[in-house]
Specification:
247 residues, alpha+beta, Arc Repressor Mutant, subunit A, Chorismate lyase, 2 domains, 10 strands, 33% strand
Amino acid sequence: MIYKNIADLLRNEINSHKFAIGDAIPSEKKLAESFSVSRMTIRRAIDELIHLRLVSREQGRGTFIIAKDFHFGVTKLTSFKEIVSDANIEGRTVVIDFKIINAPLSISSKLELNNDEKVFYSRRIRYINNKAVMVEDSYMPFKLFKNLSVEHLEESKFHYIENICNISIEGSYEACYAIMPDQGISKLLSIEPNQPILLLTTLSYSSNNQFINYAIIYRNTNEYNFEYHLKRHENTLISKKIQENEV
């Protein structure tokens, strides 16, 4: 569909540095001339952007940008709070479930726990600019985090682990899948049931190679995107310094 392709192109332009929130996009007439299509096609493309809550059409004035997609580059393990802070945007976390449970076999096997061990289970919704961008189900060993609270989880899980529990987070194993969400997740993310989302699983471990957290994350890709920056070769200067220190 031509109008969807145009909507995608306009969306990229809106998210670029060419435009700021509050700016007007070119008129339907100018866009129609630019893309060599009818004004009806442009109007349908703009309707797509309105549906995504990126622009607002004002009668007699034009169409204005009211939001931008949030996306970030992935180069290291970073907390949600660190991401929104670095991007200088409004982000918040709401815990909607928090309890101690016996670890299900599927969870205890991942965290390398005994079958009878307990874990903290929590469900959190992450918001950016008051839009739900992800739902996270998290499992943390009770024996490691006995004083874990809702307040800790609504502030920063990473901060709690590293600064209160003095456990150094070394890394995380992650896997990503495209799925169709169930009705419950769709409702929490305020999306249509037939809208695909990304499911991300993360298994975090400490500097002494102990598994400390397993999470299942449902991401609304209409509102929250991420890009990977993966380097094939290590930095030459760093490699040279390491070799010099070994001599």
